[in-house]
Amino acid sequence: MKKALLAALILSLLYLQGRLWFGHNSLSEIRQLQAEVSELQSEIRVQREINEQLRAQLDSLRDSDNPDAMEEQIRERLGLTREDETFYLFIRE
Question: Which residues have a Cβ under 8 Å from the Cβ of 38 and sit 6 or more positions away?
Fold first, then answer.
């Protein structure tokens, strides 16, 4: 009886250790997920900084005393021209 109980306890211990090291939600999987979380958090920080910069640019365009500032930015970024203008694109080699 004691031998059977001891064998059952040893088998249970082996099973639980196996799950701890190799099974679903094992320690290695948890470490991997924590690394992914860290990467994503740093990416979120970078994206938040970019968003803040874009918001600052937008606010400066909205608050600008120059009404043509927004048009100038749009035309510069999108390469738009008016009917009486000629657009030149210089390509560096």
Answer: none
